[in-house]
């Protein structure tokens, strides 16, 4: 029997066309994914929604919240078996992780996108859309959290990241790999995410910054964040979570204003931990009260800090345990 799929289009290259004259990829006119007719109808019954049509660099947490609300309202009022969201690839991992943290459902939620627009040679959009629909229709995709499907691979929202600016195999899960594959014969999972997290939010109001630490990074921007009344900061620190000595005073200043600071590693493999005892070393930062995130990249730690700060049931002194779900 055909499954009922909620299909939400949000924009991105998957719904764009290349202008042959100028060679630029543009959004405009009817979304080419909507006019697929029989091809998609053979796969499932669809409820199609298009709340906005934005390139994903234009997507903010407000749009992510709209998606959460659409999904929650639709699954409460209709018998939905799976959800597919088409999205620009630049910020796809952030939307996927936001939805993973904020929607509690066993129904599969699958995000997909494309690296080549609809009329380009080797366009991957329709193919990825079909793979995402097949995954969302699959019984074994239930209870796995939000999934990202492109290029025949199924990734978890927690681990996946865009790794290449233009290659179709851009979505990877560094260190862990995909959790399943989509083949011509079926959808197969070889791993299962072993924990879920749930936050209650109905607004996004906090200001959370993400800064990348580099050789010679100092306190200037950290003082500016305090001045601009930021509510939280994620630092993509060096190696296992170290910063230059000149930045330590800025960290102390933000902490003295009760601005939580989460540290991740700017390396895309491994986790940041308080190991080094020298000035600016992770051990010193941890002793000062900086929180070390467990294996998240910077952009996803930022989403998580924002979501945690928006959840009124969470106190700031609980943030550390939230960023260490394995401990
Ligand atoms: N810049 C595009 C976007 O994220 C890239 C894509 O969709 O692949 O909207």
From TrEMBL:
Its EC number is 3.5.1.1. The active site is at 13, 89. Keywords: Hydrolase. Residues 207-323 form the Asparaginase/glutaminase C-terminal domain. CDD domains: L-asparaginase_II. It catalyses: L-asparagine + H2O = L-aspartate + NH4(+). Pfam families: Asparaginase, Asparaginase_C. InterPro entries: AsnASE_II (IPR004550), Asp/glu_Ase-like_sf (IPR036152), Asparaginase/glutaminase-like (IPR006034), Asparaginase/glutaminase_AS1 (IPR020827), Asparaginase/glutaminase_AS2 (IPR027475), Asparaginase_C (IPR040919), L-asparaginase_C (IPR027473), L-asparaginase_N (IPR027474). SUPFAM superfamilies: Glutaminase/Asparaginase (SSF53774). Residues 4-193 form the L-asparaginase N-terminal domain. Belongs to the asparaginase 1 family. This is asparaginase.
